[in-house]
Amino acid sequence: MADLGTDLEVVAWIDGRLRILDQTRLPDEEAYLDLTGVDDVVDAIARLAVRGAPAIGGAGAYGMVVALDEARPSGVEEARAVLEAAAARIGAARPTAVNLPWAVRRVRDAAIGGTSVEEIRRLALDEAHAIVAEDREACAAIGAHGAELLADRHRILTHCNAGRLATLGIGTALGVVYAKAAAGHPVEVYAPETRPLLQGARLTAWELHRAGIPVTVLPDGAGATLLASGRVDAVVVGADRIAANGDVANKIGTFAHAVAAARAGVPFYVAAPRSTFDPATPDGDHIEIELRAPDELRGAPGRPGAPAEVAVWNPAFDVTPHELVTGIITDAGVLRGDYSAAIARLFEQI
Ligand code: MRU
Predict the structure, then answer these.
(1) Is there a catalytic annotation at residue 285?
(2) What residue ranges of the chain have pLDDT lower than 70?
(3) For residue 235, which of 274, 280, 270 has the smallest C-alpha distance?
(4) Ligand 1: which residues within 6 Å by Cβ?
(5) CB 117 within 8 A of CB 75
(6) Distances, alpha carbon 223 to alpha carbons 193, 198, 297, in Å
């Protein structure tokens, strides 16, 4: 077991190639995939081989360089067209996490002014590296702010996976957990299994166990009962997009934990970097919620599920209204109270 799991590389640029840890194969196998074309990048993001808002931002950013390498443009205008097309395609691979379109646009905007094909590629790669490095730092800062805020709260309920597997650093919600552990605080995590793709049971449990942090998996429906039992000191979840008024889109099931936490008097925190805020979206009603394939809930050989004939509704995310959020732990500090004003101030500083 590595020290707090620091050896995990979820998205990496190695030998001129984009390599991702294939999360569809965890926890059985630690296998890596080289993504050598735009189709590969879009496919890996869409089927959650790489997942989590900041991690798909990083994969998308490097995907822009993959697009240039695949197309081999013969001139500057062609290279610019490749960047535009790749930003549109990769940026739309999943609709809810704002980090993805934010990252590909950032790479496009940084590279498009290059005056040769070589310069355009270099600018694109530099920007992708910068996005990855910034997320690593943002995760560390979130961890530090969260560990201070939750110094006396050791039993954490999270949801989905907002850890190393979901980011380019130590994670957001789990970044707080790792920072507490590194500071020598006792810490233990409750991880709802997160149906239907089991990011909690497969990924959070694997990641935390590997890092030596006590973790207990529960069915999604047991969250309210656990909260009411007094066995949780704080809920800490990640986010895919935070609107200008503080409404939070995160994995389906998050809203239910927030409602149950409010009833139980347990604080409900969201941990997210500034790249997950979307000041252009006024509130949660304006966030597009990804609807995934009905087959994720239908049975297949060896996998019990709904009969093929019945209707399925499979939203991947929900929106927790800001009134239920006790605080938002960002890389720039903890936001509370009037989120509209706090978020506006956050972006004035940039
Ligand atoms: O569908 P997923 O697995 O990409 O959903 C991920 C989440 O909902 C995470 O909580 C969110 O992206 C934050 S990751 C730091």
Answers:
(1) no
(2) 1-6, 349-350
(3) 270
(4) 48, 51-54, 97, 160, 162, 166-167, 172, 199, 238-240, 250-251, 316
(5) yes
(6) 10, 15, 21
Out of 240, 247, 278, 331, the active site residue is 240
Q: What are phi and psi of 306, to 5 degrees?
A: -65, 150
Identify the structural domains of the chain with CATH numbers, from first to last. Answer: 11-136 (1.20.120.420), 142-348 (3.40.50.10470)
pLDDT for the residue 1: 40
**Nearest CA residue ID for atom 10, ligand 1:** 238
Which residues neighbour 240 within 8 Å (Cβ) at sequence distance 6 or greater? 53, 96, 97, 98, 99, 249, 250, 251, 276, 317
Per DSSP, the three-state class of 255 is helix
Residue recorded with tokens 């993001």: 45
Which tens digit of pLDDT belongs to each residue from 117-138?
Answer: 999 999 999 999 999 999 999 9
What pLDDT is attached to residue 3?
61
pLDDT of residue 8: 82
3-state DSSP assignment of residue 201:
helix
* pTM for this predicted structure: 0.97
